Amino acid sequence: MKNFKAKKFLAAMALGGVAIFGVTAPAQATIEVSAVVKVDKEVVNWDKGAESDVVAIGIVSPPDPRGLSLTREAAIMSAQRTLAGIVNGLQIDSDTTMQDFRVNDTVNRKIGGVLTGAQIIEEDMLSDGGYYVKMRVPFYGRNSIAAAIIPELAQGEPKPFEKVTETELPPSEVQTLQTTTYTGVVIDASGLYLDETFSPVVYDTNGRAIYGVKNLQPSKVISMGMVSYSESAQDQITQDRAGSSPLIVKAVEVRGGKNSVNMVNVVISVEDADRILLANENSHMLESCSVVFIK
Fold this sequence. Notes:
The protein is an alpha/beta fold. The chain contains nine helices and 14 strands.
């Protein structure tokens, strides 16, 4: 991205908020660092499946009089600070944000490492000699947010999924569910104002939890997340995650946790919960995290 012009910076400011950080250089020179942040899905990207991430921009203008390397370093620091602020506000589960979770020393240390190792995905010198840098922190994979938090959430060996011993479903449907190879599960929560999180739970209307982080291998959740968030059953994200033959059910409501109103968990009927659990006996789509929430 050569010859990044000031007018692009002004356009970005018009689209989103601007956070200003003062950075004092050792030689008693003060640099004003501006980080451009568009706080919407273009910055906090929950809708990219296993590639979901947080992106932030750091800009230093005018440049540090001591040279390009310090100007670039200040821009990186700005982007990292902005990333830290966004990450701290992410919802870990229905009751916990990252800010809450970082009281755990292990998590705090790991998240600090993730932020320090944020990836530079775009950078350039400005026309006035200042510097622009765009950085990302991945949600999943190595050196990711999930790698820092999921081991603490999972805590031990996965809990087996519930077995359906009694159901109101007709025997013919039970047999079909247990013998059909489904490629995934799609839960349609459109219109219910579902919020995103790293650790959602699927409940039925009787309060039975049928899918949660404690049912899953931590390595699987770290690599791809528990669910993908999508806009429709036809989206590429849905097809990539749930495959060509998913079991599709409709959520009846969304809910928070015991101590919150953060609507990150989905509630389905008892019959649909039975359908998912019966189908999973053969297809194992829950173990593979082949789950999509449609928002």
